[in-house]
C-alpha cells in the first residue's frame, strides 16, 4: 500500500509499503495516482517527500504481476510511463529519499522526482536491459549526460550511492537513520520559499515555460510584494501563494 501523511501543513510524505521490494503493482500505482491528484489540487501543499519502507526504495515494476499480464503487458508498461510523467509534472517539487534498492522502474521513479537524496546503503541499477525493456533512457541522459548515462543504461549493472553522487544522480548521501530527516529538512526549506516562484521555476527548468512568460504574474503577485515588505521590515516573509 501507499502511506500518505502530512508531517507539516505544507509537506506531504508518501511511503511505498509493498514488501519485500516495494514493486509498483497496478493497485499501488492506482493509489499513487489518487494521492498525486489530491496533491495537485491542494494549494496548501508546497513539497512532497517520496520514500519506501522496509529499507527499500523501489525495485520497479512488479515482475510477478507482469508474468501473467499476457496481452495486457504493453498497456501496463504504458500505464507505468504515464505515472512517471505525472510524478514529473506535479505542480510542487518532489524529493526522493532513496534507501536500499532503487532498480529499474524504481530508478525511473526517482528520476521523475525533482531532487534525490540517498542513504549510504542505497543500491541503484538502470536495469531495463536486464529484463528486455527500455527504461530511464530519456531522463537519465538528461540528468547526467549521455556518456555517463550509457555506462549505466547499456550494462544494467548495479552501482552504489557514492557512484550515484559522483554522477549527479543524487545530491547528497546520508546514513539510513538520518535520510528521511534530511529529506524533510530540505522539503521544509523548499516550502518556506515563495510558492508561486518555486512552481514557476520548476516549470522553466522542465522546459514547460519561459522566464519571460512567468515574470509578469510573479512581479504582480502578493508573494513578491510580501517578500519586499519582509526585507524592508527585517522579518520573515509570510507567503500565501497569491
Description:
GO terms for molecular function: catalytic activity. The chain is of the alpha/beta class and 242 residues long. It has two domains: 189 residues, 2-enoyl-CoA Hydratase, Chain A, domain 1; 40 residues, no CATH class. Helices cover 46% and strands 17% of the residues. The protein is built from eleven helices and nine strands. A six-stranded mixed sheet has the order 1-2-3-4-6-9, with helices on both faces. Strands 5-7-8 form a three-stranded mixed sheet.
Q: Can you give me a brief rundown of this structure?
A:
The chain has 11 helices and 9 strands. The chain is α/β, with parallel strands linked by helices and 242 residues long.
Question: What keyword list fits this structure?
Answer:
single chain, 242 residues, alpha/beta, 2-enoyl-CoA Hydratase, Chain A, domain 1, 2 domains, 6-stranded mixed β-sheet, 3-stranded mixed β-sheet, 9 strands, 46% helix, ClpP/crotonase-like_dom_sf, Enoyl-CoA hydratase, Enoyl-CoA_hyd/isom_CS
User: Rg, please?
Assistant: 19 Å
- Quickly count the domains: 2
- Which structural class fits the helix and strand makeup? alpha/beta
Question: What's the total count of β strands?
Answer: 9
Stretches with pLDDT under 50, minimum 5 residues: none
Number of H/I helices:
11
Apparent shape: globular
Strand content: 15-25%
Widest sheet: strand ordering: 1-2-3-4-6-9
What CATH architecture of the largest domain would you give?
A: Alpha-Beta Complex
Biggest beta sheet attributes: 6 strands, mixed
Mean pLDDT: 96
H and E string:
EEHEHHEEHEEHHEHEHHHH
What is the CA–CA distance across the termini?
35 Å
* The CATH class of the largest domain: Alpha Beta
Helix percent reads 40-55%
Briefly note the CATH topology name of the largest domain: 2-enoyl-CoA Hydratase, Chain A, domain 1
CATH homologous superfamily placement of the largest domain: 2-enoyl-CoA Hydratase, Chain A, domain 1
Amino acid at each position: 500500500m501507499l502511506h500518505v501523511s502530512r508531517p507539516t501543513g505544507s509537506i506531504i510524505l508518501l511511503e511505498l509499503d509493498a514488501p519485500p521490494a516495494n514493486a509498483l503493482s497496478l493497485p499501488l500505482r492506482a493509489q499513487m495516482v489518487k494521492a498525486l491528484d489530491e496533491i495537485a489540487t491542494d494549494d496548501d501543499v508546497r513539497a512532497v517527500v517520496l520514500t519506501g519502507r522496509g529499507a527499500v526504495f523501489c525495485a520497479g515494476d512488479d515482475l510477478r504481476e507482469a508474468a501473467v499480464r499476457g496481452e495486457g503487458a504493453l498497456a501496463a508498461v504504458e500505464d507505468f510511463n504515464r505515472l512517471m510523467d505525472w510524478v514529473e509534472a506535479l505542480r510542487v517539487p518532489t524529493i526522493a529519499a532513496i534507501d536500499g534498492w532503487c532498480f529499474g522502474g524504481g530508478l525511473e521513479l526517482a528520476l521523475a522526482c525533482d531532487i534525490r537524496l540517498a542513504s549510504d546503503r542505497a543500491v541503484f541499477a538502470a536495469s531495463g536491459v536486464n529484463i528486455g525493456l527500455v527504461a530511464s533512457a530519456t531522463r537519465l541522459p538528461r540528468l547526467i549526460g549521455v556518456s555517463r548515462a550509457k555506462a549505466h543504461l547499456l550494462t544494467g549493472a548495479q552501482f552504489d550511492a557514492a557512484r550515484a553522487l559522483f554522477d549527479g544522480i543524487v545530491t547528497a548521501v546520508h546514513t539510513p537513520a538520518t535520510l528521511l530527516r534530511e529529506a524533510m529538512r530540505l522539503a521544509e526549506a523548499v516550502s518556506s520559499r515563495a510558492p508561486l516562484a518555486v512552481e514557476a521555476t520548476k516549470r522553466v527548468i522542465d522546459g514547460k515555460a519561459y522566464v519571460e512568460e512567468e515574470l509578469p504574474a510573479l512581479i504582480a503577485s502578493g508573494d513578491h510584494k510580501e517578500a519586499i515588505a519582509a526585507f524592508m521590515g527585517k522579518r520573515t516573509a509570510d507567503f500565501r501563494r497569491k
